[in-house]
Amino acid sequence: MDLEKIRTWVKSRLSEERYLHSLGTEETARELAYRFSLDPEKAALAGLIHDNAKNISYEEMLLIIKENNFDIEESIKNNQKILHAYLGACLAQKELNIEDNDILNAIKFHTTGRVNMGMFEKIIFLADKVEANTRDIGFRCEVLNILDETNNIDKAVMYCVEQTIRSLLDRKLKINRITIDVWNNYLSGYQ
Ligand SMILES: [Fe+2]
Ligand SMILES: [Fe+2]
Fold it and tell me: Ligand 2 center to residue 131 CA distance, Å?
């Protein structure tokens, strides 16, 4: 698949800031894939397109889902923040003919994560949170340090989930059930 053409497709759908974030996620996903011996170009592609639906308005998202009969459950449709990830996976399949389930699932679960994520999903989840173009550089360094010191991707993912929960609590925002499940599941694994 021609990455340059896909970059043009992504760029046409996103704000400048979000496009920069996508390029950063592409690059960090490629680096993490090298680090953990996965396919770097497949990870780069998933990183590049993970937010393709991010700048679609909520009303438009619902319309696109209805018109295309995309199979997305009601609880997700009701959650505007998570919906872009699920719709992004549907659109990657429909418009870019991507059928690789690693890529589709990585896009779908990049916001919330999920219990028992695959290695490829973890890489895209992390790359989205720590890419160099638009994310906090101090946070990026903390997460990369965890990887350098432990070489354990679960510790890095867990740290991201922990910081997400902390930030949601601080801002008195709702914590999605999936995020709590991911947190609890990781804790069970470590105890
Ligand atoms: Fe996103
Ligand atoms: Fe993102």
Answer: 9
> Residue 104 maps to which CATH number?
1.10.3210.10
* Ligand index nearest the alpha carbon of residue 47: 2
Q: How far apart are the CA of 191 and the centre of ligand 1, in A? A: 31
Number of compact structural domains in the chain = 1
Instruction: Please provide the average confidence, as pLDDT, over all residues in the chain.
Output: 95
| Residues 6+ away with beta carbon under 8 Å from 43 | 29, 30, 32, 33, 120, 123, 124, 127
**Which residue is associated with the tokens 């028992």?**
116
- The pLDDT-based confidence of 81 (bands split at 50, 70, 90) is confident
Range of the domain at 89: 3-190
Q: What digits encode the pLDDT tens for the residues 107-117?
A: 999 999 999 99
